[in-house]
Every structure is written in structure tokens, then in C-alpha cells.
Amino acid sequence: MKTLQRTLTIVKPDAVKKNAIGDIIEQFEKNGFHILAMKMLEISQHQAEQFYAVHASRPFYHSLTKFMSSGPIVVLALEKENAIADLRTLMGSTNPANAEEGTIRKKWATNIEHNAIHGSDAEDTARYELSFFFAGYELTQ
Ligand code: CMP
Q1: How many domains does the chain have?
Q2: Residue 85, ligand 1, Cβ within 6 A
Q3: Known catalytic residues?
Q4: Sheet harboring 34-41: ordered strands across?
């Protein structure tokens, strides 16, 4: 039986500034992801700290949350079979220096922090991250 999975992705402020939103969304659709919900917004540093709370002890936490609150982002709820792993493959390595040809980060990321896109890394984080940005009624069927 085929099981659909949901994941949360963010087009980060660096990619929005580069006018990469359309290109990145096209990659989602071309690769079989169904868009359940999408919105453009700005978050405060406090909200970014809550979203990335799992990284609170990391040396880059302050800089990362400052960056994520530095301008508009686009958040999307995506669905497909194996969505979490497939999105991570499509994104490429966190550090664009290691990102594979044809990946979103290879094309759009600037460096390990300004890396164009976020994607949930597991089912529990996907559930948390989806509920962080979307209420249940906002997700289309
Ligand atoms: P993301 O997939 O959103 O998950 C956590 C983010 O932290 C990551 O992408 C990068 O933007 C950032 N990050 C991870 N490792 C580092 C690092 N070594 N230095 C700076 N930023 C990092």
C-alpha cells in the first residue's frame, strides 16, 4: 500500500531576495510534490527561535534565527509518497559546497547558513513544523 507523507518546506530569505520562489516551486511540482498550502510571511527572531529550538545549543543559533527573520519567507505544506526523504534529496546537502548537481541548494544556496531552503528531517519534526505554520483547516485535501 502506498502511503502519502507530508512535509514542511521554507523558501528562506536569501532565496526570496534572489527571485527564486517560482523556480523552487516549479521543482516541487516537477518532482511530484502536491502543494497542500502555501503562504509568504515574515517571522520575528523570537518566532524563528521557537521554530529552530532544536538547534538552541548550536553556535550558529543566534545568527540563523536573525537570518530567518531578516526578510520574507515562503512556507509550503507538501505531500507525496516518501515526501520527507525525497524533499531532502531534491534540496541537496545543507552545505552547498557539498550539494549534488541538479539540487535546489546547488543552484540557489550561498553558504551553509544562507542555504535557500529548509525541509523537515523526520516525521515528528514534520508534524511540529507543519503545525507551527499551518492550522489544520488551511491544508487542502
Ligand atoms: P536547515 O535545513 O534550515 O536546518 C538548520 C539550519 O541551520 C540549516 O538549514 C542551516 O541554515 C543552518 N546551519 C546548519 N549548520 C550550520 C553551520 N555549521 N553554520 C551555520 N549555519 C548552519
Answers
A1: 1
A2: no
A3: 118
A4: 34-41, 73-81, 4-11, 117-119
